[in-house]
Design brief:
322 residues, alpha/beta, FAD/NAD(P)-binding domain, Polyamine Oxidase, Chain A, domain 2, 2 domains, seven-stranded mixed beta sheet, binds flavin-adenine dinucleotide
C-alpha cells in the first residue's frame, strides 16, 4: 500500500480519508486536539456552534455519507422558525421543514467530525510546518520533529495556509494563491433567563451582522438559552485587527439594532475571530492534484464555503500509487 499524509482533519480531510483508506495507508495530521475544523462547538459555561451553523444536502454522495449518522441521530433536521431581516424589519418568515431540510450535528456541530474521525488514524496537536522532498518521498515536519516519509501529501486546509505550506513545485500553486477567503466574527451570548424572540434563525441584510441564531433551539442542545451572531464577511475583513472589546461592543449593538432588544445583559459573552471563514462560489476543479509531484490540495475553497463542498472536494479526490 502506498502511504498518504492528509494535513487537516476538517470535513475535506476526513472525506478524503474515507475515499482513500481502502487503497492506501492514510495518516492524518491535525493541529488542533480534535477533528472537525470549522464544523465546531465551543464549550465554556455555555455551549455554542460558533462555526458552521447547519448544512444542506444537494448531492447523492453527501446523502449516502450522512445516512448512517442520521440513523444514529448524530445528524438531525433543524426545523427552525426562520426569518429574514432587512435592517430591523422582518421581510420574510417561514419554518424550515422536510421540503428543504436544514441539518445539524447533535449534540453540537463538532459531533459529526468527532464521530467520523474515529474511523481513521489521526495524530492530533500536530501542526505541519514543512514538507520536504527526500528522494522519491515527502518528509513531513512539525517544527523540528520528523513525522515520517510519505508517497503522497494531501493538504486539506484553508487556501492561504495551503499556499504557505505547499512545496513550491506544486503545479497548481498559483491557483491556490488567488483564492481569497473571507473573515468572520462569531459573537456568543449566554443567558440564565431566556430572551423572548419569535424566531430561531435569522438572515440579516444591510447591517454589519449577517446571521443570528438561538443556538439552544437546535435539536439535542442544552436548554440554557444561547444566542449566536455572525458578522458579515465584509465588516470582518475590514476589522481583522480590531481589539476584542471594541468588536464585542459593535456586534452587540448590531444585534440590539436588529432585534430591538437589550442583549448586553448576557451572563456570558464570548467572541471568536475566523480569519479564513468562508469563500464565495468558485469555478474550476473540486480539487487540485499534481500527479507528477504527488501532491494535492482540497477544501471547501475549491468549490464554495459550505460543509458539503468540503465533503465533495475530498470525496472526489482521485490519486494513485505512481
Ligand atoms: C463562521 C462560519 C460559519 C459557517 N456557516 C456555515 C453554514 O451555515 N453552512 C455550511 O455549510 N458551511 C458553513 N461554514 C463553512 C464550513 O464550516 C466549511 O465550509 C467547512 O467546515 C470547511 O471544511 P474544510 O475541511 O475544507 O476546512 P476546515 O474545517 O478549516 O479544516 C481544516 C483543518 O486543518 C487543520 N489545519 C490547518 N493547518 C494545519 C497544519 N499546518 N497542520 C495540521 N492541521 C492543520 C485545522 O485545524 C482544521 O481542523 C461556516 C464557516 C464559518 C467559519
Amino acid at each position: 500500500m502506498f502511504k498518504v499524509a492528509i494535513i487537516g482533519a476538517g470535513m475535506a480531510g476526513l472525506s478524503a480519508a474515507g475515499q482513500l483508506h481502502q487503497q492506501a495507508d492514510v495518516h492524518i495530521f491535525e493541529k488542533s486536539w480534535r477533528a472537525g475544523g470549522r464544523l465546531t462547538t465551543r464549550h465554556k459555561d455555555y455551549i455554542f456552534d460558533h462555526g458552521a451553523q447547519h448544512f444542506y444536502v444537494k448531492t447523492k454522495a453527501f446523502e449516502a455519507f450522512l445516512a448512517p449518522y442520521m440513523k444514529q441521530g448524530i445528524v438531525q433536521r433543524w426545523d427552525a422558525r426562520f426569518v429574514e431581516f432587512d435592517g430591523d424589519h422582518i421581510i420574510a418568515r417561514r419554518r424550515w421543514n422536510e421540503a428543504f431540510p436544514h441539518y445539524v450535528a447533535v449534540p453540537g456541530m463538532e459531533a459529526l467530525g468527532h464521530t467520523v474521525a474515529r474511523n481513521y488514524n489521526i495524530q492530533y496537536q500536530t501542526r505541519i510546518t514543512q514538507i520536504v522532498r527526500q528522494d522519491q518521498h515527502w518528509a513531513l515536519f512539525s517544527d523540528d520533529i520528523a513525522l515520517g516519509l510519505f508517497d503522497w501529501v494531501v493538504l486539506a486546509i484553508p487556501a492561504p495556509q495551503a499556499a504557505a505550506l505547499m512545496p513550491v513545485n506544486f503545479v497548481h500553486l498559483d491557483q491556490i494563491k488567488v483564492k481569497k477567503m473571507q473573515a468572520c466574527y462569531s459573537l456568543m451570548l449566554g443567558y440564565k433567563n431566556p430572551l423572548r424572540l419569535d424566531f430561531d434563525a435569522a438572515l440579516i441584510k444591510n447591517r454589519d451582522i449577517s446571521w443570528i441564531s438561538v443556538n439552544s433551539s437546535k435539536p439535542g442542545r442544552h436548554k440554557t438559552f444561547t444566542l449566536l451572531a455572525h458578522s458579515t464577511n465584509h465588516w470582518a475583513d475590514q476589522h481583522t485587527d480590531l481589539n476584542r472589546e471594541s468588536a464585542i461592543e459593535h456586534l452587540v449593538n448590531e444585534v440590539e439594532n436588529v432585534i430591538q432588544q437589550n442583549v448586553s445583559s448576557a451572563d456570558h459573552i464570548d467572541l471568536h475571530r475566523w480569519l479564513y471563514a468562508n469563500i464565495g462560489r468558485q469555478s474550476g476543479q473540486a480539487n487540485l492534484v499534481d500527479y507528477e509531484n504527488r501532491l494535492a490540495a482540497i477544501g471547501d475553497w475549491c468549490i464554495s464555503g459550505r460543509v458539503e463542498s468540503a465533503f465533495t472536494s475530498g470525496h472526489t479526490l482521485k490519486i494513485s500509487p505512481m
